[in-house]
User: Which sequence fits this backbone?
């Protein structure tokens, strides 16, 4: 064999090798990701999908909307037990706990879980102790209430929450613990699935100085009805979810940005796809939060928003 033929053979072999490597790398970037949502798609899911696409993955997203139904959630889990995927993305405390009770081998990335340690989803922020890692939407409640204090020096505060949603109960207890420190009295208003909202909130009166609306799927579902009633009573509302300020008419909120929470969840997924075990990937929160103010509501209920708040606000609804 002459040198020319040897060179040609070597080039051909190199070509075949590189094609094999490229195919292997391409196949490694192809993933199937199940997305279980509790109350429909939010900007968090868009951020997650954009993030994974930005990392160069070719992802087939399979969506399982639970629509706040335990039955639909159970059906999604059963489907995934029979048809495993590369990773499961799950939204919210209730859905995450249910998924982790039944699925222990597929990696899970949770998102929009306010208190993952207290709710028993993970052992600690540094290590989950299970097949999950994720992102918390936690904003320190003390910071939220102190922000409202700059607008109105409330002495009485109501909180509307679903007592069946563990995440909401945890937030309520934190607010209760701050009564003495911030000099106010807390009043509970519980709303449960299937109950008459008007009846549940019948005790609301203009005597309350303010109402806190925690990160609660039930509260969000009835957001317009709740804020409509409170605005009619001229009661200022502090929301832990930005959508309730923008879409439902709550007065203001100190909130995380859902889209950025989704991008952070994509970072966790990428770490898993890079062969890291979920329990070695710390759970994270955003290190910055947004002030959102609804000036239409402020005018409606006769509240003056201080300039010091407006200049810091990331979003002002006019």
Assistant:
């Amino acid at each position: 064999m002459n040198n020319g033929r040897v060179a040609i053979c070597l080039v051909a072999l190199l070509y075949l090798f590189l094609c094999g490597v490229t195919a292997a790398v391409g196949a490694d970037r192809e993933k199937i990701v199940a997305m279980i949502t509790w109350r429909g798609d939010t900007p968090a899911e868009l951020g997650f999908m954009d993030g994974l696409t930005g990392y160069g993955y070719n992802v087939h997203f399979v969506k399982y909307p639970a629509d706040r139904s335990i039955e639909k959630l159970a059906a999604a889990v059963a489907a995934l037990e029979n048809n495993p995927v590369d990773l499961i993305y799950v939204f919210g405390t209730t859905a995450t706990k249910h998924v982790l009770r039944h699925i222990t081998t597929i990696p899970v990335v949770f998102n929009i879980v306010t208190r993952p340690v207290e709710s028993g989803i993970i052992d600690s922020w540094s290590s989950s102790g299970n097949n999950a890692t994720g992102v918390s939407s936690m904003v320190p409640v003390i910071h939220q209430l102190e922000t409202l204090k700059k607008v109105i020096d409330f002495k009485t505060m109501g909180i509307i929450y679903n007592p069946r949603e563990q995440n909401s109960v945890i937030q309520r207890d934190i607010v209760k613990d701050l009564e003495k420190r911030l000099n106010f009295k807390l009043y509970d208003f519980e709303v449960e699935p299937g109950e008459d909202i008007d009846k549940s909130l019948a005790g609301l009166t203009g005597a309350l100085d303010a109402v806190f609306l925690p990160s609660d799927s039930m509260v969000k579902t009835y957001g317009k009805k709740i804020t409509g009633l409170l605005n009619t009573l001229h009661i200022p509302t502090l929301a832990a979810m930005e959508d309730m300020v923008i879409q439902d008419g709550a007065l203001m909120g100190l909130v995380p940005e859902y889209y950025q929470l989704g991008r952070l969840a994509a970072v966790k997924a990428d770490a898993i796809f890079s062969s890291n075990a979920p329990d070695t990937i710390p759970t994270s929160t955003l290190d910055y939060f947004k002030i959102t103010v609804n000036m239409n509501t402020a005018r409606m209920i006769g509240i003056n928003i201080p300039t010091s708040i407006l200049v810091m606000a990331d979003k002002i609804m006019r």
